């Protein structure tokens, strides 16, 4: 397969501070630099640089959807800007053949004083559409945005939702060879968001290579065929979306663990040995491994497993050792095997072990999480009933370093 | 990890695009240029209460200022003002108003749309070019008004007016060249627009807008006419008001001796400076455009 889109060892450097944006500053600045050189100092030392991207490589072939995830400042936006030709890379080669359509800042070109109609032509042209193309799709665009009655109203009188809907509707009617999507998934109200998401899905599966950046991890796992996890400008891991998402979620909890210096047990890994994708109503196995270090835990503490909706983080189910008669481990390595019947609607969930403090009604310790996808299975009715089985292996060989066996 | 740097062999070479490719891309983006132009025109005339009368404001102000200047001069020198020289003032105000107005708005155009530049990719040249072209309706309106007014004040219409139209076309290219250079310069150095305003204030005296070259004597006229903008302004007077063929040499007998007020080389000069500036503008703009998003 020929990659239509590729990053080959791309680096991007930004300079911080000591830049001039007026001639008035430049001239004394140059004089200073010359003097410094005279004093034997290198001016380069005074320029601070920041590598926003470090040796990033990936390929996206036709029909592939690449998801890019990572914390803020990881280099996601810089990657998209370089793909979009808004910025040049400092080093490395970028290949992007054909017309690039980007669902980024979909109403950036709007002029507040122009009417909706005028702005459709303007924004369409900015996004690379021909006038004839806009004319041909005009009714569809207006219909999609649902702003027919405001066509001849200046967009400055539009609500921010209407503005975004109109912008998205224009972008959604591009016919690009390469599609780049950044966080537009949260446009307008819930109904429009659903509509927008369906449209993106339709565009993303149209055969063109797609790059998608989002903080909505469930969207990544639903849309993408592969993913990369960026961290401080470098690729931390790549592979299936579920693998990248889990690595990302684990990295988040690693950081928060150190915030509990008095932790009596440490959860080290959470994983789904038989795969993290399960039919609704199907059986899911989760393994949590960890290490207990102290014996003086408060008697009100017990181990627990919590499942939340990936998107809303709202709690679906918590199984506590208190209910099941499983005490907090005393010392050494331990492993919990959970067998859950996923009697929950299709969707994306996150599971993570916690230590539950019944007295304080809080979680003093949170372990690494695993991302679970529940796909449409047998018909699901009624309240959640997970029919959990819980097996405890004391002094188990530490499985923390065992390789992940995950399937997407 | 912060100390890491890419091996030098990986460094991306500077953006280099051939002139032909830039022009082809611009042609591809002609509908975008049209949309930007329409936007600029709509906004300008929408906001101005006077509408299209606005197009006449700048030339009228220049003519007014020029008249005051001439009256003062003629009173001091005790020579009467000729009708033809007032007509010449009006004709020369047309290209000057276009150049000064177009360049002022175009210089700020890129920075004004920095937000868009940092977010969406499109052929960046279209912004300053559309900004200059958006002044074209003003140019046409003021030109038509002047051409209608000339016979009324006693200056007959000459066939050589067509030379004037050719010069105005070249002037548009000349202004675009400057606009490309100054709009990107203004992105990197935000005080370029102030410097431009000062330069324009001097320019109105340095080029033959208010002065006629013969007022400066032989040497003064030669220097004034050697300025790159002068052929466009002087040529309008010579062709439209005086009705002379621009392929001829025009020499005036003055008390200070013979003064050359037009020579055929000035036509070649006008063509050469406008094409050189446009080419340089397009290349410099493209070379620096990779840095726009970081400056914006």
What does this structure look like?
- The complex is a heterodimer of chains A (408) and B (296).
- With 408 residues, chain A is of the alpha/beta class.
- Chain A has nine helices and 19 strands.
- Chain A starts with a strand and ends in a 14-residue tail after the last strand.
- By secondary structure, chain B is mainly alpha-helical.
- Helices cover 69% and strands 4% of the residues of chain B.
- Chain B has 13 helices and two strands, in the order H-H-H-H-H-H-H-H-H-H-H-E-E-H-H.
- Chain B has a two-stranded antiparallel ribbon.
- In chain B, helix 3 (54-77) packs across helix 7, helix 4 (83-112) packs antiparallel against helix 9 and helix 8 packs antiparallel against helix 11 (230-241).
- Chain B is elongated and about 75 Å long.
- The two termini of chain B are 28 Å apart.
- The mean pLDDT of chain B is 88.
- The chains are: A alpha/beta (408), B mainly alpha (296).
- Chain A binds chain B through residues 9, 11, 14, 20-24, 26, 51, 54-55, 81, 84-93, 100, 102, 104-105, 108-109, 111, 113-114, 118, 121-122, 125-128, 130-131, 232, 234, and chain B through 1-2, 4-7, 10-12, 15, 31-32, 34-36, 38-39, 42-43, 46-47, 115-122, 188-192, 195, 290-291, 293-295.
């Amino acid at each position: 397969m020929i990659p239509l889109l590729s990053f080959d060892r791309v680096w991007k450097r930004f300079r911080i501070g000591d830049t001039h944006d007026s001639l008035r500053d430049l001239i004394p600045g140059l004089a200073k630099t010359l003097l410094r050189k005279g004093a034997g100092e290198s001016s380069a030392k005074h320029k601070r640089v920041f590598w926003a991207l470090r040796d990033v490589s990936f390929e996206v072939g036709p029909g592939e959807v690449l998801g890019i995830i990572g914390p803020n400042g990881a280099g996601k936006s810089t990657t998209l800007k370089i793909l979009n030709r808004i910025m040049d890379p400092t080093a490395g080669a970028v290949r992007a053949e054909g017309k690039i359509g980007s669902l980024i800042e979909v109403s950036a070109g709007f002029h507040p004083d122009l009417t909706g109609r005028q702005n459709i032509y303007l924004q369409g042209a900015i996004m690379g559409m021909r006038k004839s193309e806009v004319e041909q799709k005009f009714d569809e665009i207006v219909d999609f945005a649902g702003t027919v009655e405001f066509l001849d109203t200046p967009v400055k009188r539009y609500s921010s939702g209407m503005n975004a809907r109109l912008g998205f509707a224009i972008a959604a009617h591009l016919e690009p060879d390469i599609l780049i999507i950044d966080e537009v998934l949260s446009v307008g109200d819930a109904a429009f968001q659903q509509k927008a998401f369906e449209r993106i899905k339709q565009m993303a599966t149209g055969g063109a290579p797609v790059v998608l950046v989002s903080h909505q991890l469930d969207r990544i796992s639903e849309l993408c065929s592969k993913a990369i996890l960026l961290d401080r400008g470098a690729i931390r891991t790549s592979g299936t979306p579920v693998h990248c998402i889990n690595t990302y979620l684990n990295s988040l909890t690693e950081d928060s663990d150190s915030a509990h210096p008095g932790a009596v047990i440490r959860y080290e890994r959470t994983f789904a040995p038989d795969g993290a994708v399960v039919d609704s109503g199907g059986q899911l196995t989760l393994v949590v491994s960890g290490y207990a270090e102290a014996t003086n835990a408060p008697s009100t503490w017990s181990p627990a497993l919590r499942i939340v909706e990936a998107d809303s983080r709202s709690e679906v189910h918590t199984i506590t050792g208190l209910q099941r008669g499983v005490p907090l481990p005393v010392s050494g390595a331990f492993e919990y095997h959970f067998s859950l019947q996923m009697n929950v609607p299709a969707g994306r969930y996150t599971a993570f072990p916690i230590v539950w403090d019944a007295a304080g009604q809080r979680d003093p310790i949170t372990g690494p999480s695993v991302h679970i996808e529940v796909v449409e299975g047998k018909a699901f009715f009624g309240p959640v009933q997970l029919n959990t089985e819980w097996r405890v292996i004391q002094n188990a060989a530490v499985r923390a370093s065992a390789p992940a066996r995950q399937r997407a | 990890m912060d100390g890491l740097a890419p091996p030098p062999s990986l460094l991306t070479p500077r953006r280099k695009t051939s002139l032909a490719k830039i022009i082809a891309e611009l042609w591809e983006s002609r509908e975008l240029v049209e949309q930007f132009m329409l936007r600029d025109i709509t906004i300008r005339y929408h906001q101005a209460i006077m509408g299209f009368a606005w197009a006449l404001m700048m030339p009228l102000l220049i003519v007014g200022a020029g008249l005051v200047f001439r009256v003062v001069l003629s009173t001091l020198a005790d020579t009467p003002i000729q009708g033809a020289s007032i007509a010449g003032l009006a004709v020369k105000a047309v290209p000057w108003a276009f150049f000064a107005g177009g360049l002022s708005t175009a210089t700020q155009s890129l920075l004004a749309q920095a937000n868009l530049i940092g977010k969406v990719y499109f052929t960046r040249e279209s912004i300053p070019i559309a900004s200059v072209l958006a002044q074209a309706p003003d140019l046409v309106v003021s030109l038509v008004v002047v051409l209608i007014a000339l016979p009324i004040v006693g200056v007959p219409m000459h066939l050589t007016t067509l030379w004037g139209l050719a010069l105005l076309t070249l002037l548009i290219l000349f202004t675009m060249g400057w606009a490309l250079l100054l709009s990107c310069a203004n992105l990197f150095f935000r005080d370029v627009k102030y410097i431009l305003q000062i330069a324009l204030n001097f320019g109105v005296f340095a080029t033959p807008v208010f002065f006629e070259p013969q007022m400066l004597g032989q040497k003064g006229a030669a220097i004034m006419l050697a300025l790159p903008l002068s052929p466009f302004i002087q040529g309008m007077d010579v062709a439209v008001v005086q009705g002379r063929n621009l392929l001829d040499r025009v020499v005036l007998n003055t008390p200070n001796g013979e003064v050359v007020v037009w020579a055929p080389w000035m036509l070649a000069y006008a063509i050469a400076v406008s094409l050189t500036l446009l080419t340089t503008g397009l290349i410099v703009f493209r070379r620096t455009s990779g840095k726009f998003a970081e400056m914006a």
